[in-house]
Predict the 3D structure of the following.
Amino acid sequence: MFVDPDEDALRANKVAAELYGFQVEAAQDPQAASHVLRHRSVDVAVVDGADRYEGGLGQLRALHPSGHGLIIIAAAVSADPGAAITAFEQGADAFVVKPYAATAMIARIRAMLRRRDLTARVRAPAALELSFDAVSGVLNSATERVTLTSIEGRLLWSLLSRPDQAFSRHEISEVVGGDAVRSDLRSTDQMISRLREKLGRLKARNLILTRRKAGYALRDDLQVHFDPGGSAVKFRSTS
């Protein structure tokens, strides 16, 4: 599927891909793209204008029945590294600068499909499953454990309490408390970074996502179960 507000570019990409044997869907805006993903089988989405997706490009993957099997390639006119970084943080699997040669894009798509299929055959990814004890501050996986600081623990607990919503940097500063944090919102980014680093030891670094213009949120495939006693929580991915 190609998503591009430029009708001429959209038509040219569609024709070129069809010449190489692909079945192609086309959309000019996020709403049309969302409709296609809900009702069509799509392997790859080449998306222009990633900054128009307020929930991040990952929202397209969440809408699609194949879930995390959808490959997202972000395209932009700007070659600025910042544009690529933003696209990857939003959930893109690859980034290309426009204009691009149709033959090069087709080759990239084929290579990414081969890599995806090979990975699926070699090893199906294990579902993420963790537990956190708020009293001890210990975060456990099936094979590893890490201890969180009190601030990191409050931050993780708060994110888990609202798994379907994003926390702004200001909200995070209120959750963790402290005048220093409230006066310098950049410190919230540092806290998120440290928490991600510890999650990475449990192979769960991608648990916390950056939502453009919204803040930080948990990945959208989590199931969260709080202990009735109110001091522990278990959470696992559904894919």
User: Anything to note?
Assistant: The chain has nine helices and twelve strands.
